[in-house]
Amino acid sequence: MPRPSRGVVRSCGFVILRSSTPQAKTSLLPRLATERNTLDARIGGSAEGAGVNKAGSPVLRVPSSQTPLPEAPFHTWKFPDDTPWAEFYRESGGYRLRFPGLADFSLTADGNTVTAIPVPGVSEGTIQHLYLNQVLPLSLSKQGKLVFHASAVEFGSGALAFIGPTGRGKSTLAASFAISGHRFLTDDGLVLAESGEGYDVLPSHPSIRLWHDSEKQLIPPDVKRATPLCYTTKARLLSGGALSYCDSPRALRRAYFLGDGTAKKIEFRPINPTEALIEWVRFCFLLDIEEQPLVAAHFDHVARLAAQPIHFRLDFPRHYRDLHRVRRAIIEHAGGDPSPD
Predict the structure, then answer these.
(1) Residues near 282 by Cβ (< 8 Å), separated by ≥ 6?
(2) What is the SS3 assignment for 18?
(3) Nearest-angstrom CA–CA distance, 249 and 227
(4) Closest to 193 (Cα-Cα) out of 202, 204, 203
(5) Phi, psi of 212 (to 5 degrees)
(6) Who's near 37: CB < 8 A, 6+ residues apart?
(7) Helical segments of the chain, H only
(8) Which helix (H) or strand (E) holds 91?
(9) Which of 24, 183, 278, 337 has the greatest number of beta carbons closer than 10 A?
(10) pTM, 2 dp
């Protein structure tokens, strides 16, 4: 399940070589701002034309200390050292997501309404970040949307997706493409919507999160940075200027599942629908993994996606100096030119 690394300064796996990152159907774009104690998160409709988040206005309550809840969590995301990152509880009328020491988020059973309850002293920026990158994808999954731990970039009139666990370089690839003129659609929380015989990638929040080493190697100094957060050393880089962002849906042309970086050269390998299904399921966001009808419907939906002839494994040596070669190889593999680069 998607969760951040802990106690890791750099997790993208790249090596620095010392010697020589009813509304219009066009967007899934969360826009958060504080207005009279409310987080305004209006989200555009899906490619099917239906609203993705019908309520769209998570309420920010007065800060409150986290007290023990009466029931044990039915699911937990944990850090590598086994301490909880997020705890999933059922409560009357819906769910509660607890990020220990940071905030609770209450969600209605349909996922359409979210209420944030920060721990005293936690910044509004932290609450926004948690909502965008953790809670919103889970909320959308409860609404029947396909949401994955993946990044995506524009490729001509289509899009390329990069899927894998934390540390495989999804954000680094997205940033590398974006600063080379291939606009990014999402840094994480990839949302896909069926469209005709294929799937559309819906745009997400216009920012990319990078560890310091990738930021230093890839990002020009004039790119705007969001306020640092208390629980991660990752920088959140805002779109604009050199970091180009696509705010319209793009048809998914290729889905690349990233290897662990042990390859000696750039390697592509097609995978069959069964393999693709297993990989997509590994990296999906699901709010309630015990709700059998929803899980079954989700599985069927993912199986249709996996049947598309667009899935490949991709691995390459993780050296920043080689990123331009990796980018060119991906472009060639995906069908050639679609400028820029």
Answers:
(1) none
(2) coil
(3) 28
(4) 202
(5) -60, -40
(6) 59, 60, 61
(7) 124-130, 136-142, 170-178, 212-218, 273-282, 292-306, 323-333
(8) strand 84-91
(9) 183
(10) 0.82
Cα 85 from Cα 298, distance rounded (Å): 24
Instruction: From 52, 8, 284, 253, select the one nearest 150 (Cα to Cα).
Output: 284
- Give the pairing of strands 190-195 and 198-202: antiparallel
Q: Which residue positions in the chain have pLDDT lower than 70?
A: 1-58, 337-341
Residue position matching structure tokens 């291939």: 182
Helix axes 323-333, 170-178, angle to 10 degrees: 80
**How is residue 165 annotated by DSSP?**
S
Distance between CA 33 and CA 320 in Å, rounded? 35
Integer Cα distance of 319 and 245 in angstroms: 25
The token pair at 151 is 């990044």
Cα–Cα distance for residue pair 139/27, rounded to 1 Å: 17
Structure tokens at 237: 């880089």
| Contact (Cβ atoms closer than 8 angstroms) between residue 140 and residue 298 | no
The contacts of residue 148 (CB under 8 Å, 6+ apart) are: 161, 163, 189, 190, 192, 280, 283, 284, 285
Termini Cα distance of the chain: 34
Angle at which helix 292-306 crosses helix 273-282, to 10 degrees, equals 130
In order of 2, 154, 159, 175, 257, the CA distances from 253 in angstroms are 24, 10, 6, 19, 14
